[in-house]
Amino acid sequence: VDDQIWYINECLQDWDRGTLFDYAIFTKENEYAGSIGVHSIQWAHNCCELGYWLHSHYEGKGYISEAVQGLEKVLFEMGFNRIEMRCDPNNKKSTAVPLRNGYQFEGVLRQEKLFRDNYRDTAVYAKLKADLKREMHRR
To answer: Is 107 exposed, middle or buried (0-12, 13-18, 19+ CB in 10 A)?
Structure first.
């Protein structure tokens, strides 16, 4: 309980500072399915990163894509020009999300993160405001 209280207080402080925005994802039946957040916000450069997590029971049902599409629409309307998604290039479920949602693969940052005493690569995907405009014109 103490950890949850600490986490909620940290989230509230991050919201107030404008440094991170986390959202819960719920099913239509009001079951908690996962979360999505806006991270690595660079207000001066109008860019940010989306991070997401989904309980395995809810995978493959479109929850993450729906959350990504809704959140990116709001972020672009707020004035962001670039939204990134970063993930382990070996995690095929995670790498499918940006591709399915129109993000461009930009490359791999080799051995970018230290995780449990091992360096891991990070795949970078991005969508620009101009990309979203092109998508809208095609629909």
So the answer is: exposed
Q: CA-based Rg of the chain, rounded to a whole angstrom?
A: 16
| Longest CA span, the chain | 49
| pTM of structure | 0.87
**Average pLDDT of each block of 10 consecutive residues along the chain (139 residues)?**
85 86 94 95 97 93 95 96 96 94 96 92 96 71
Any idea what DSSP says for residue 13?
H
Q: Which of 88, 54, 89, 57 is nearest to 68 (CA)?
A: 54
3-state secondary structure of 26: strand
Nearest to 82 by CA among 34, 29, 43: 43
